[in-house]
Amino acid sequence: MPGIYIHIPFCKTICGYCDFFRSANLTHRGRYMEALHRELDATRDYLPERTIRTIYFGGGTPSTIEPAEFSSLIEHIGQLYNICEVEEVTLEANPDDLTDDYLAQLADSPVNRLSLGLQSLHDDELEFMNRRHSAAQAENAVRAAQRVGFDNISIDLIYGLPNSTTERWRQTLQRAVALNVQHISAYHLGIEPHTRFGTLRDKGLLSPVSEEVSYEQFDLLRETLAQNGFEHYEISNFALAGRRSRHNSSYWNDVLYLGLGAGAHSFDGHSRRWGVENLSEYIAHSDSPEIYTVEQLSDDERYNEYVMTRLRTCEGIDTEELLQKFGAHKLHFFEQRCRPLLDQKRLENVAGRISITANNLLISDSIICELFA
Ligand SMILES: C[S@@+](CC[C@H](N)C(=O)[O-])C[C@H]1O[C@@H](n2cnc3c(N)ncnc32)[C@H](O)[C@@H]1O
Ligand code: SF4
After folding, report:
1. Average of pLDDT values for 103-114?
2. Whole-angstrom Cα distance, residue 58 to residue 18?
3. Which of the listed residues 5, 6, 25, 212 has the most CB atoms within 10 Å of its CB?
4. At residue 252, does pLDDT exceed 80?
5. Is the CB of 59 under 6 A from ligand 1?
6. Is residue 114 a contact partner of residue 153, using CB atoms and an 8 Å limit?
């Protein structure tokens, strides 16, 4: 069953590391939400299936928008699709937006899963990243969400921070685990062009951590979360039993999805498309096909995507499924390419399932490239 992703590109301030499509100009919010409703109507025939399984409000910062606006969008989705079987409605939120009043309204809405960007539980690191909240505020936001009844909460953390240490990462992890959340996404810092961190790096004022430190912190992450009952189910994602992100798991399992909003991606099984990354253009033309760039996927591209997304997960690739989807010729190609990586123990084969060995997940991109057609 497909999912619907809705992009809310507004942020009150911009974090030093972030290159997601977002804008600090909040004045467009009202017109943007109206444009989303128009796009929803205009794309009603995009998905071949009418029953929706997951809805995800991502950003940017969705919590810059009032809960009633989400309820209204979900109601509108319900007029076009069957949402009786929706299992998960996630909202990404920044801790500083989660006042008691906001949380009480959210608890009354169809949102049943929160994804909170904590990033670190050290004040100086948060300040360095230009986050708007302190560590205590972030912890209080999680507790406040739990108090109003949210029992499916994910938090985002970032490791591999310059100016930090593995000991300080251990402290963040221990405080994060003590919050009793159901899901943790932990990302190694990427220093991207066109961000404040990228500029600092170009000026020689910021250096990425060494490979050795990256591995040390990744190993600590895996060990600490495993000891606390979290399953490592995707490179950056850890969940308690039954609490994997259903929406994001769809992306890794070829499930169809409709993306709404500026820059949002959609997949209908044959092609991908994404909306224009420009607020004024999106608002003016959200009900017109001209806002999309469409990419038809060739067989090789579909195979590459399959390999890339599946190898990011702990389940890896079922060779029988690969045969069914892409035929004997591609399976032969895949097996040939896997052989040296299996010998080097970068990949493992467990009962016909090929996956990246746990201690190599941090360099998954370079391994996956070796298997591309
Ligand atoms: C779409 S962002 C938004 C979430 C929300 N606006 C917030 O900041 O809390 C999702 C997550 O991606 C991660 N992220 C974004 N850029 C990153 C980068 N350059 N390196 C590592 N993690 C990054 C952060 O953990 C962030 O919380
Ligand atoms: S990390 Fe979140 S709050 Fe910060 S700029 Fe990116 S989307 Fe906005």
Report:
1. 97
2. 14
3. 6
4. no
5. yes
6. yes
Distance between Cα 175 and ligand 2 center (Å): 22
User: What is the pLDDT, as a whole number, of residue 270?
Assistant: 84
CA 117 to centroid of ligand 2, rounded, Å:
8
Among protein residues, the one with the nearest Cα to ligand 1's atom 15 is 18
Cis before 327 (ω within 30): no
The mean of the pLDDT values for the chain is: 96
**DSSP letters for 318-332:** EHHHHHHHHHHHHHH
Cα torsion 61, 186, 17, 371: sign: negative
**Closest C-alpha to 258, from 267, 246, 250, 249:** 267
Other Cβ atoms less than 10 A from the Cβ of 226: the count is 13
The predicted-structure confidence for 116-143, as pLDDT tens digits, reads as follows 999 999 999 999 999 999 999 999 999 9
Q: What pLDDT score was predicted for residue 254? A: 78
For 32, left (φ over 0), alpha (ψ -120 to 50), or beta? alpha
- The reported pLDDT for the residue numbered 250 is 79
What is the reported pLDDT for 1? 86
Which of the residue ranges 185-189, 237-241, 306-310 would you say has the lowest mean pLDDT? 306-310
Q: What is the DSSP string of 151-162?
A: --EEEEEEE--T
CA 37 – CA 27 distance, rounded (Å): 18
E-strand stretches of the chain: 3-8, 54-59, 88-93, 113-119, 153-159, 183-188, 231-234, 237-239, 257-260, 265-267, 271-275, 292-296, 317-318, 347-350, 353-356
pLDDT of residue 225: 98
Residue 269 has pLDDT above 90, yes or no: no
- CA separation for the pair 100, 102 (Å, rounded): 6
d(Cα 338, Cα 151) in Å, to the nearest integer?
41
CA distances (Å), 237 to each of 21, 73, 325, in order? Answer: 22, 28, 26
Contact residues for 63 (Cβ-Cβ < 8 A; gap 6+): 91, 92, 93, 94, 97, 98, 102
- C-alpha distances in Å from residue 174, one per residue of 114, 122, 207, 220: 20, 12, 26, 11
> Whose alpha carbon is nearest atom 2 of ligand 2?
60
